[in-house]
Amino acid sequence: MSEQQSSYRQVVKATSIFGGVQVFNIIISIIRSKFIAVLLGPAGMGISDLLISTSGLISGITNFGLGTSAVRDVAAANSTGNKKRISIIIIVLKRWIYITSTLGAVIMLVLSPWLSQVVFGNHHYTIAFVWISITFIFNQITSGQLVILQGMRKMEYLAKASLAGSALGLIITVPLYYKFGTEGIVPAIIITSIISFSLSWYYGRQVKIEKLHVTRVRTIAEGKHMLMMGFLISLSGLISLGASYVMRIFISRHGGIEQVGFYTAGFAMINTYVGLVFTAMATDYYPRLSAVAHSNELCKRSINQQAEIALLILAPVIMVFIIFIKWLVILLYSSRFIAVNDMIIWAALGMFFKAATWSIGFILLAKGASKIYFWCEFTGNLYMLALNIIGYHFLGLTGLGISFLAGYLVYFIQVFILSWIKYQFRFDIAFIKIFIIQFALAVGCFLAVRIAGNAYAYISGVVLIGAATRYSYYELDKRLDLKEIILNLKSGKGLK
Questions:
Q1: How far apart are CA 305 and CA 475, in angstroms?
Q2: Per-residue pLDDT tens for 397-435?
Q3: Of 106, 132, 137, 469, which sits with the fewest C-beta atoms within 10 Å of its C-beta?
Q4: Would residue 7 count as lying in a domain?
Q5: Each residue of 38-49: pLDDT tens digit?
Q6: What is this structure's pTM?
Q7: Same domain, 210 and 244
Q8: Most confident option among 102-116, 147-161, 327-341
Q9: 205/247 same-domain check
Q10: CA–CA dist 52, 281 (Å, integer)
């Protein structure tokens, strides 16, 4: 097997592992939401969401983005093979995790009366926020353990921790809702946090490090870059949340609460069911890219490989969404949500540019260019918010789909030019060919739905989906030797 083929297989292996994990987590999430809706009702669901989202906001402010930034440092240390260096980075990370988790817990504890008043309009939930402050310790330590597993490329341990945590969390919390109703919400949140902590601690301990004495000065020096980069990543995430919140307020004021529901449901489909491929790939991609960040040429090769695999997997899925959007919306929601159909098929085309942008964008994190990353995200959020407002004002929900496509086209150009100037990045001919062919087939699906009648749209759509699938198989086979992989799977050898 060639080195290049092995590299492609690593991409697909990580995607298959974490794609399965994401699918499982989505199923668990759907089941949990159903139980909460039935056992607690709308009011209980609202209480649970407000408690979790409030603690999530404070956590996002106080954790300094270590769950993302530290992956780069651990991966870079791991790539050297120097056990002492790896141990130092992990020890430093753990110390800062303890500091930031304590900070978050103290802030939550002190602000509990104020949060109860602001969020619920009374002080009845002060004790609830006090108890939930405990979870900051468990959640942040869990995040640190998962960072270590991700940075050290212990992907199977990472997958097992996630799967077991989701399953046990569901099994243990549902009886609490059944027995105690809304009174079981806070215990459920705390127990779920403890379960995740316990599993991450168990699998995290599988990574053996040397016991070293790391001074306070060294801890500050090594942690400074983690914290600075993490803070900017965290800040850019908060800006993204803010832009999304402003958009929801705008839609609510101009279209009503129901329109907000359509907006949320439509983009949940795109970002959850299609976007899970990005989440699955990113788990392995980020540390892998960080390990070769010292070389622009190696980064270019890794980005092109990731972008090719992402498009070859995503393209047929996107086309299925475009052609069968009506039935998918009814299946996942109900016939009352078919108003989002046009918005989703426009946004589906935008996922091609998002896939390309996403593949390039990680180079800024891998290179440690946190300030550039922040300003890139900041400007991107600004013009995407502007495009969304304009799109919705003139064309309603359909305009939001068009603005998604336009926004990611502009963002793709921005990120590509930036990476080309700063890191001499360019796409290979192979990726450009894949993009043009698959995007053309997707546009064909789009036109079939928009112009042809239902029967003709389905017939021509199935033909185009078949062509895209066949082309993806052909290109993946060239890179991976799929026949050998299938034989290995049948013999129990797995994906090597």
A1: 12
A2: 999 999 999 999 999 999 999 999 999 999 999 999 999
A3: 106
A4: no
A5: 677 656 666 776
A6: 0.71
A7: no
A8: 102-116
A9: no
A10: 27
Range of the domain at 141: 15-214
User: What pLDDT is recorded for position 3?
Assistant: 55
User: 179-197 b/e with 16+ CB inside 10 Å = b?
Assistant: eeeeebbbbbbebbbbbbb
Distance of CA 456 to CAs 151, 329, 338, Å?
A: 49, 20, 20
Has residue 126 been placed in a domain?
yes
pLDDT band at 153 (very low <50, low <70, confident <90, very high): confident
Where residue 230 falls among pLDDT bands split at 50, 70, 90?
A: confident
Q: Domain count of the chain? A: 2
Q: How confident is the model at residue 466 (pLDDT cuts 50, 70, 90)?
A: very high
Cα gap 163→25, rounded to integer Å = 7
| Type of residue numbered 67 | G
Instruction: Identify whether the C-beta of residue 112 lies closer than 8 Å to the C-beta of residue 130.
Output: yes
CA distance 392 to 389: 5
Q: Using CB atoms within 10 Å of the CB of residue 172, give its burial: 0 to 12 exposed, 13 to 18 middle, 19+ buried.
A: middle
**CA 362 – CA 299 distance, rounded (Å):** 10
